[in-house]
Amino acid sequence: MKNEKELRKEIATLVSEFYQTKFANQKYIPGKSPVRYAGRVFDEKELVSLVDSSLDFWLTEGRYAEEFQSQFADFVGVDYAILTNSGSSANLLAFTALTSELLGERRLKAGDEVISVAAGFPTTVNPIIQNNMVPVFCDVDLGTYNVKISDIEKAITSKTRAIFLAHTLGNPYDLDAIVELVKKHNLWLIEDCCDALGSTYKGKHVGTFGHVATCSFYPAHHITIGEGGMIFTNDDVIARAVTSFRDWGRDCYCKGGENNTCGKRFSGSYGTLPKGYDHKYVYSHIGYNLKVTDMQAAIGVEQMKKLPHFVARRKENFKAWTEGFRAWTDKFILPEATKNSDPSWFAFPVTVKPNAGFTRTELTDYLASHQIETRNLFAGNLLRQPAYAKVAHRVASELANTEIIMNDSFFLGTYPGLTQEQINHTIKLIQEFLTTRALKR
Ligand SMILES: Cc1ncc(COP(=O)(O)O)c(C=O)c1O
């Protein structure tokens, strides 16, 4: 009979073969195949790793989660990386951790004001609302699609306690200016890097400027594990609070399968519990369970190895779109990297100018009819979304550009699976659209 090692090897060989049969060599046929805005990019290694982890049948966080977290922390350059089941959960945990009693008087409290933007993804703002605080909305600049710094300055009051912003579509915001405001007004800074893994500002990874940061591993993002996210920080107290909120709110920090890491499992005193109450069942936060399985982490371990190449490909594709759109600056506002930054672009966002002779929707509809995927800048203006109609908030200054983005902006993909051939095909179609429009006028 074969032993475990031999069987694992045989299974891995078969899984590689399976990959070749099912996924390798997918042909792109211009005009017939869709041009996607995003997608999973993987090879046999992710499948082998996933199956290997399933053979452990450990199921919950284990050796692969440990490795993935450590690879991620090394890549970004932080002390702690904590895995969770989505970017939205990462945002909820990162923000909620700042309400922890562990932070003493510095902790966030209900009613505090938190600065953000309305032109973005809902779950950057939702944790503010879910923690009974008040989001304060600033406008953004067209082109960078990031917050207007002058608006933040105007928005700050004695109630302001934090800034929670995403690096829009991978483009870092002006971190020099924001960090200065954070220091001056003693605020917390939460960096949503869900769309910005690999982006740098003055040579340093985004997510390392604020107090805590987040990432998403949903398939559209820079690396994927299906559903997943990461919280990362250099602050050990925040890391402890994040882990507690993620793991049911428990006080104990033993890893799965471990016991008595603190050495006082049956001898501590907590609240009004009897002395020596089992630390495993002591709850110091009102928590959730937002953990992942080790099978998801096993995919992440292989995706991390590809990340530098993915980042390079995103930058190449962004450059190729820029070349393609260069002749049309009378019709579109093209995206610009924030000064001092090197974005690992999530997408190529454009805004249709008022005198272009067509609307955003006419163009995206035309592209969709030719199987070219586009997306709007997520929620457009969050305040116009039905769910936010009754949410307590403050608008710091007129959201004029946010409105323009809702009406006139869209983005094309930059993901590593997108090829120059697909970009050329799309550019040709847009040229045809523009020519037909010009003839009609
Ligand atoms: C900026 C931003 N934050 C948070 C999220 C949420 O991530 P997830 O889909 O993993 O929950 C997304 C999702 O795309 C996002 O774009």
Short account of what is shown:
With 441 residues, this protein is α/β, with parallel strands linked by helices. The chain has helices at residues 4-22, 44-56, 63-76, 87-97, 122-130, 149-155, 175-184, 236-246, 294-325, 360-369, 400-408, 420-440, and strands spanning 80-84, 113-117, 134-138, 160-166, 188-192, 200-201, 204-205, 212-216, 229-233, 332-333, 341-342, 347-352, 394-395, 409-413.
Walk me through what this model shows.
The protein has 441 residues and is of the alpha/beta class. The protein folds into two domains: 11-249 and 284-441, Aspartate Aminotransferase, domain 2; 255-283, no CATH class. It contains twelve helices and 14 strands. The protein has an eight-stranded mixed sheet with strand order 1-9-8-5-4-2-3-13, sandwiched between helices. It has a three-stranded antiparallel sheet with strand order 7-6-11, with no helix packed on it. A hairpin with a 2-residue loop joins strand 6 and strand 7. Helix 3 (63-76) runs parallel beside helix 9 (294-325) and helix 9 crosses helix 12. It is flat, with a radius of gyration of 23 Å. The model has no long low-confidence stretch (mean pLDDT 97). Pyridoxal-5'-phosphate is lined by residues 86-88, 91, 120-121, 123-124, 166, 192, 194-195, 216, 218, 229.
